[in-house]
Amino acid sequence: MATKCFCAALLPILLCFMLCQPCYGTVSDIQCLKKLKASVDLDNKLEWTFNNNTEGSICVFNGVECWHPNENKVLALHLGSMGLKGKFPDGLENCSSMTSLDLSSNSLSGPIPADFSKRLPFITNLDLSYNSFSGQIPESLANCTYLNNINLQHNKLTGNIPGQLAALGRLAQFNVADNQLSGQIPSSLSKFPPSNFANQDLCGRPLSNDCTATSSSRTGVIVGSAVGGAVITFIIVAVILFILLRKMPAKKKGKDVEENKWAKSIKGAKGAKVSMFEKSVSKMKLNDLMKATGDFTKENIIGTGRSGTMYKATLPDGSFLAIKRLQDTQHLESQFTSEMSTLGSVKQRNLVPLLGYCIAKNERLLVYKYMPKGSLYDHLHPKNSEKKGLEWSLRLKIAIGTARGLAWLHHSCNPRILHRNISSKCILIDDDYEAKISDFGLARLMNPIDTHLSTFVNGEFGDLGYVAPEYTRTLVATPKGDVYSFGVVLLELITGEEPTRVSNAPENFKGSLVDWITYLSNNSILPDAIDKSLIGKDSDAELLQCMKVACSCVLSSPKERPTMFEVYQLLRAVGEKYHFSAADDELTMQPQNADPEDELIVAN
Ligand SMILES: *[C@@H]1O[C@H](CO)[C@@H](O)[C@H](O)[C@H]1NC(C)=O
Ligand SMILES: *[C@@H]1O[C@H](CO)[C@@H](O)[C@H](O)[C@H]1NC(C)=O
Ligand SMILES: *[C@@H]1O[C@H](CO)[C@@H](O)[C@H](O)[C@H]1NC(C)=O
To answer: InterPro entries in the record, alphabetically (predicted)?
Structure first.
């Protein structure tokens, strides 16, 4: 009961509805596809047959992508050029976890439903281009707050572009070219290229015609231009051709410039100062960060992830820093500053220290200590296959260090911090092969209304192999979700495999690393999964013990997983003989605080 109230107080009504309702995902998703087929697949081009009710049966359908190959839960529909006919398809409201819909290049017509946002509230990618949809762009599209991409190109849409779309803070692509839209383009959309708005009667930025011209004077312009039209067109075409031809070789350079245009734009920004948490670190200005990263050039990028892009900065004294440019934070400056001072005080030996931050116009830059050895991912899956993988004792040291850092965040840190995006890419390694967790505390900065779904937005499915299965149902981050992701990292350390692609499995095996381990475990051949380079070196027993811990972390029921504190204790016992954890006293964990799994944690 208390849980429900907490939920009602802090989450939007829609989310609460989803959380507090039991989940009938799979029946519903089959019904979704049945209704869709019945409404638009009149010529049976999709060849979907519903005579098999096993979990995962719809996941092999043409154009259907599931969250998980063994679960009838639709992630995306890729139905471009499938010969679909009729009105906007029925049934999509029953694909309740769908995030991407592509119906492009079909023969669909009629209006886009006005209650679109009720049907697909979590959509991130919508492509209805090259159909014959008519009527207005529904205002309710603005309620689909996760939308990244909207493509409505080449339809028969009329009316204005709704100003409400300004509410779509994540919009990265927007195209309505080749429709019959009219009126002023909302200023929030003026950042997109003019060609995306090519419609007879649209006006305002980014187009070059402004909207102040009255319709009568426009008529005059039209008459006038009819006379001089041919001549002017000829001249314009000639000029454009001339410019294009001259620009051709310079094009590539132009693109590079584009990439750090944001950096140029904040150069010399007024009032931009770099705030450092430690007095020992020398004072810096935005200008120094610019110099140290060569104005944030591409060459200095050392990593990109969900929360932003990391750059390597070289200071005049030859030392290094890592600077993160945060991806669209939605916090006010004051909120951001207070979050920063909290994060700046979070210090533990298995966390990458946050040294400072800088606010410059809309940009938010975080200054971290630089970790020269890079990420665990790079060490486990070297691009150059000649390079030898890590030996077992180092892997175990990294596993224990990561577990210690996470256990500290969950159980000792106040306020408690959930990481939510643990992967081998965010675990960095220092000179002594001590694990350092990066990106902690950033999930909350990204999106104030923090649903887990926001993790998947921006098309970044790269970390999918690490995501706990319950997240697709509950949308709420929990400590047990972090435990699951850590379990996947542990499996990576033991098997040397990537979480989404198992090179050691038979060719027709399509599942993730966790699926592979589950399969081997069910067939009592778990030891087959262990990295061949580690076997027979006096550590087989440790490998199996760690495998057992990893398997308990990735159990599908969150309640059955151990807490991070327990995981740390188990791994520490396995590694006792190596004496990694001599300086361990800083850990004052409170095990009584260690079973928060029934509590919904909205803020981290
Ligand atoms: C499909 O969605 C409709 C409308 O939201 C709902 O009434 C119906 O129960 C759903 N069907 C299933 C099987 O969940
Ligand atoms: C049903 O689908 C499952 C999963 O795709 C498949 O393994 C099984 O063989 C199918 N059964 C029948 C009777 O087609
Ligand atoms: C969109 O959301 C707003 C605010 O929650 C609500 O008033 C409005 O009715 C919604 N529109 C539609 C079409 O769902």
So the answer is: Kinase-like_dom_sf, Leu-rich_rpt, LRR_dom_sf, LRR_Rcpt-Like_S/T_Kinase, Prot_kinase_dom, Ser-Thr/Tyr_kinase_cat_dom
Angle at 104 between CA 100 and CA 109, to 5 degrees: 110
CATH number of 374-581: 1.10.510.10
Stretch 279-292: mean pLDDT: 77
Cα-flanking dihedrals φ and ψ of residue 327, to 5°? -75, 145
The rounded distance, in Å, linking the Cα atoms of 330 and 328 is 6
Q: What architecture (CATH level 2) is domain 270-370?
A: 2-Layer Sandwich (3.30)
Interacting residues of 542 by C-beta distance below 8 A, sequence separation 6+: 392, 396, 574, 575
How far is ligand 3, taken at its centre, from the CA of residue 423, in Å? 37
Residue located via tokens 């991407």: 100
Residue with more model confidence, 282 or 543: 543
Using the predicted structure, report yes or no on whether residue 388 has a pLDDT greater than 70: no
The answer regarding whether domain 25-203 maps to CATH 3.30.413.10 reads: no
* Minimal-distance CA residue to ligand 2 atom 10: 52
d(CA 89, CA 112): 10
pLDDT reading at 549 higher than 60: yes
Which of 17, 136, 143, when mutated, tests ligand 3's pocket best, judged by the most ligand atoms within 8 Å of its CB? 143
What tokens were used for 60? Answer: 């092999």
The model's pTM = 0.55
Q: In the 8-state DSSP scheme, what is residue 106?
A: S
pLDDT digits (tens, 9 = 90+) for 350-381: 999 899 888 887 788 899 999 988 899 989 98
* Cis bond before residue 121 (omega within 30° of 0): no
Bridge pairing between strands 71-78 and 64-68? antiparallel
Cis status of the peptide bond prior to 499, with omega within 30 of 0? no
User: Which residues is 313 bridged to in the sheet?
Assistant: 321
| pLDDT value at residue 528 | 85
Ligand 1 contact, 96 CB (< 6 A): no
**Most confident region among 169-178, 223-232, 411-420 by mean pLDDT:** 169-178
Per-residue model confidence as pLDDT tens digits over 75-99: 899 999 999 999 999 999 999 888 8
**270-370 matches 25-203 in CATH topology:** no
Structural element, H or E, at residue 217: helix 215-247
Strand partners, 68: 71
The helix or strand, by DSSP H or E, that contains position 135, with its residue range, turns out to be: strand 132-135
- Other beta carbons within 10 angstroms of residue 227's beta carbon come to 9
3-state secondary structure labels for all residues of 450-483:
CCHHHHCHHHCCCCHHHCCCCHHHHCCCCHHHHH
Q: Domain residue spans in the chain?
A: 25-203, 270-370, 374-581
Residues with CB under 6 A from ligand 3: 117-118, 140, 143
CA-24 nearest atom, ligand 1: 14
Q: What percent of the chain has pLDDT over 70?
A: 77
